[in-house]
Amino acid sequence: MEDLFQKTRVIKLCDDDFDSDFHLIHHKFKNKDGYVMIYAPWCPNCQDKVGFWSYMAEQFNDRGRYHGENFRIGVISTTDPKAEKCVEHFQVVAIPMFFHVRPNRLGQGVLAEYQGADLQPSSLLAEVCQESPERHLCRLKLDDNKM
Questions:
Q1: Which of 13, 53, 120, 123 sits at a 20 to 30 Å CA gap from 147?
Q2: SUPFAM superfamilies this protein is in (predicted)?
Q3: What is the tally of structural domains in the chain?
């Protein structure tokens, strides 16, 4: 099955992107906050998130409009043989699964399962912005066609 994020700006992560304590050490996440979604390509709920996750990555990763916000968007595929340790460590039993990434004092990402009210785009954006996304500088247009 084709990778859902193959032609997107989403950062694809695997076991090599974590140290032995499962701190995220991928260079694009160094000293950055962010979100990581664990997904499976065959999962309908995961497939439903592709548009929004890709849109967030376009805005925050690489040369996106909000690249300077120090926020990144990544994914881990449960079907990637190079991510087996991640899937086991994060005890993936339901997908999609979302993690908030916060840098530690060494710049490594520490993942905590997202505990927001829901997994709707507006809730994730509110978490990113620390307030209502309608009033924040990192205002993104929630275009229904992209979600």
A1: 13
A2: Thioredoxin-like
A3: 1
The bridge status of strand 71-77 relative to strand 33-39 is parallel
Residue-wise pLDDT for 19-48, tens only, equals: 999 999 999 999 988 999 999 999 999 999
* CA-to-CA separations, 80 to 54, 107, 126, 135, in angstroms, rounded: 19, 26, 30, 39
Q: pTM for the complete prediction?
A: 0.82
Q: At what angle do helices 121-129 and 44-60 cross, to 10 degrees?
A: 40
Token digits of residue 104: 């530690």
Residue 11, φ and ψ in degrees, nearest 5: -80, 115
Sequence-distant (6+) residues with CB within 8 A of 84 are 15
CA distance 90 to 103: 18
Identify the domain containing residue 50 by its residue range: 11-139
Residue 45 belongs to a domain: yes
Instruction: Give domain status of residue 78, yes or no.
Output: yes
